[in-house]
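Subject: Predicted fold for CoA-transferase, 592 residues

User T.R. writes:
Posting the sequence so we have a shared reference for the thread.
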Amino acid sequence: MKIGDRTALSLVKPNRPSFTDVEGLAAMVGHGDAFGVGGHHFARLPIALLRAIAKTGVKDLHYVSWAGGLPLELLLEAGAVAEIELCFSSLDIFGLPPKFRAAAEIGAIPVRDWTALAMIQALRAAQQNLPSMPFQLPQGSDMLARVPTAAARPDPLAETDTGFVPPLRLDTFVVHAQRADKSGNVEIIGPRALDFAMAGAARQVLVTVEEIVPVGALRRDGRQSILTRNQVSAIALAPGGAYPASCLPFYVTDYQALSEAFATKDAALSDRLGLPLGGLPERLQKAAKVTAEMVLAMPALSQGEGEATVDEIIAARIAAELDNESFASAGAVSPLANVAYRLAKATHAPDMIIATMSCGHLDVAPSPMVLSLIESLDCETAVAHAGGDDTYSTYYQAGAVTHEIVGAAQVDRHGRVNTIALRKPSGGLIRLPGQGGMADVANMHRDYLLYVPRHSVQSLVDAVEIASSARGLLTPSEREPMGYRTGKALVFTDLCIFRLDQASRKLIVIETMPGVTRPQIGEATGFEVTFDADCREVPVPSSDTLAVLRSRIDPLGLRRLEFVSAKERGALIAEILAADRAMVERCIAAQS
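User M.O. replies:
I've generated the structure tokens; pasting them so everyone works from the same file.
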């Protein structure tokens, strides 16, 4: 059966799911299934179930999810995957997934890159039993041609070009959730990612949960989302089933365990991700109970001293772009963006809205970025939680988001970005994580902000090989008919700041980093550089701003991860993890 086939089996599920164990769920996955995975980044990943599925020997899965990451690595290791359809694949602070990269770079497995909005609408078409769904075109990018089965057609009413995509049907969707009641209703706390859309598009939905509770217990919480029992096929009780990922409010992510698992080469990844012999570590459970108030009451730590470093200068400069009217979204893997947003909210823009986890946490407080705690603190302080599909229709497509700064591997003179793949001089490919949702939202946000942490002729090029995203709608006349506000288009690097000029549609330098000369910038750029007539030096942050940044916002120095080489990254992660563990232990001790 092909993905999206209209002759797919009925999506109607029984009114009450069956209850089994994890191995029973795994046995329900069939060879060749179109297979989707729920959760988000390192949150609520169904790790126990995926490990069990890998052990069944299932083959030829068509992996279909917004993200690849750890779930995809487990299935690739087992040789279970025949095709991959996704928007993004990363191991968060640990970098690119090696098995995904290897498979993609040698062409061992076909990889198809979707835009997030096209995938959402394709899932909705399946969920709503429609022959197709429209979506805003990713103007300026090359992504439409890369999205399977999508096409641009005149809208039947407005007659303007619009994207259309057929249903994206799944055979099996697996997800981990907090609780189920004995009738089979499933509770999800926190961001829902694309879980609801994928469940609606799937023939069978297999769920592991931390607890099974009496009927009626789920209605008492008030901040949860419910996947009703008629949408669920089977459930297994699996306490710690997301470990070493998180499942709030039960436990936080075990970053130390993940780091060790990714570093160890003499054992299978699946074997390295099981629960410890003693069960779920107590410190992870206690850390999930730490509150934002408790963290803020702790004596301040400080990462960094002396004069401002380039990472701090850029963070402060981005923060200066924000004000009380800003709605800033932090996407997939963006420590720098998170730091800049929280710095602005903690200083001059207390009324701005910050949305983290791709808008899953809405309107969070500027809590300190303690690696193991930041998800739980954002979950606690958020005004509301949302799903990725809701986020697009309610915020991105509506033009409500003013800022989302994202990192780019390669940017060209027209501000087009490549985060898909680079061609080596030898002709081989270097696979990159993918565009996530940037192909869509590059046009939807008021301000289009990019950063390139290491400015070089390889990263600032004359023309990108693949335009994964771009500000195709730049001028007011192009943006206003779409309902989008016109704002700035900027690129921040460790040498300068570029602005995308509306008239020439080319990047020009408007500010230089302290001590950086114009010849330095020219020599490090792969196209002829133009300097604005009013080009000036980026201001150095004040001592007060630096104090807030170093002690109140980013006491572990997560921002530094964006600015180090791959060779330096391992040592820096080890340093951060040690500081993170010490901070968490202090919070737990204070809690006791």
